[in-house]
Amino acid sequence: MPATETGLKHYQMYVNGEFKDSTSGKLLTVINPSTGEKISTVPSATREETQEAINDAYEAEKTWKFVPAATRGQYLHDVATEVRNQADHLIALLQEEQGKIKSLATTEIMFSADYFDYMAAAARTYEGEILQSDNKHENIMIAKQPIGVAAGILPWNFPFFLIARKMGPALVTGNTIVMKPSSDTPNLALEFAKIVDKVGIPKGVVNFVTGPGSVVGDELSRNKKIGIISLTGSVDSGKRVMAAASTHMAKVSLELGGKAPAIVCSDADLDLAAQAIIDSRIDNNGQLCNNCERIYVQEDVADEFTKKLTAKMAAVKVANPITDKDSGMGPLINQAALDKVDGMVQRAVKAGGKITTGGHKVTIENGFYYEPTVITNVKQDSEIVQDEIFGPVLPIVTYKTLDDAINMANDSDFGLTSSIFTQNLDNAARAANELEDGETYINRFNFEAMNGSHSGWKESGIGGDDGRHGIEEYLNTHVIYLQGHPEKAQG
């Protein structure tokens, strides 16, 4: 890749099968969150360049949709193979620009390869229907057909996997796609574009355009040639995309924020519960919408559970995940994220919250680190219990009855994931039936399966990902009424 005048690495956008810079001449600078150092630059595209990418994808889709699904699937298999071949390189890049510990970076890259293979296999399994007609000699067929051009707006917390989650189902069903990586983590997406180019996916089918959301993201949301917009991001971003998409009635699939409750019953295996909640909370340095964000623990085990949780959280080693192989948690993505988390904690303390461990920024080089934190004596209506933290902080609220716990868990604008820890089948059944979330985990940490369904309720989203339901997001339904006239048949 070419070097910039500053000596930083420089990546180019990938549009219609070509790597290119922006005519604007403007660059975005990427920061290593573990050290605070500048690591690369990427182009800042104009609205007109985004339109060109959409036009290229629109033209490519006219041919791509008629490529046999099995052939489209083979391209995805080829991508999966190449991801595995380049795994070590991709893992290192992911750690550098996003701050993951190595084990999680490895999981993200390898899971993405598996995800491409899973979606490739769908080429021969997604299907329509044939219905019985009330009319003589008529066939009613429901065909599943591509929507057209998909827009994929990517977050920074899983910058590689979310490419697979959006591109895989889009391509296998005959759509083309234009993706906008996060300005915090564009490097890996543009590195992935080299894989797309190497395996020979036809020009215009997959495109990456870098730049600010106010320009690139807005154009992807407003452009009439876009048929579906898939965004993973904040609630505010989702609302802006939805409003823009409404101008031309594009379909939206939005995976937004979460405030996942974890209910710990008095009969729970407390060691299992504490470890599962911590694994969920510090996963990706606390920056995951699935992460446990608030704990409801039954009063008679609250002290014992809090001690166990506090000890386990205090034992998590915070360190530069690139240079320290024993790091259990790396940095937050940037200074703004660090300041937000610390501000929420300090306001909770000022309101009467009690820190049992953590509660401070950590000075490691010039990175953006925060201590794993447990805070008690917080109220249900407080900011730290109601608003998404997106950092390694666990507020604890106590409850008397399961009714109380379920009511408080549902008292939220969010509805993405939840969990309950209990050895009582009736408690588990109640939680499964009454918690208002797209996913509920029972006696395990919060992480979904690729063949499941990942979707949120309330302000956590519209539409969904993964499994056959995620594939159907990228398909239109076409009902065909075929009226036969046997008397006119020849032969």
From TrEMBL:
It catalyses: (2S)-3-sulfolactaldehyde + NAD(+) + H2O = (2S)-3-sulfolactate + NADH + 2 H(+). It comes from Levilactobacillus zymae. It holds the Pfam family Aldedh. The active site is at 255. Residues 21-479 form the Aldehyde dehydrogenase domain. Part of the sulfo-TAL (or sulfo-SFT) pathway, a D-sulfoquinovose degradation pathway that produces sulfolactate (SL). Catalyzes the oxidation of 3-sulfolactaldehyde (SLA) to sulfolactate (SL). One of its GO terms (biological process) is gamma-aminobutyric acid catabolic process. GO terms for molecular function: succinate-semialdehyde dehydrogenase (NAD+) activity. Its EC number is 1.2.1.97. Keywords: Oxidoreductase. It comes from the Bacteria. The lineage of its organism: Bacteria, Bacillati, Bacillota, Bacilli, Lactobacillales. One of its GO terms (cellular component) is cytosol. Belongs to the aldehyde dehydrogenase family. This is 3-sulfolactaldehyde dehydrogenase.
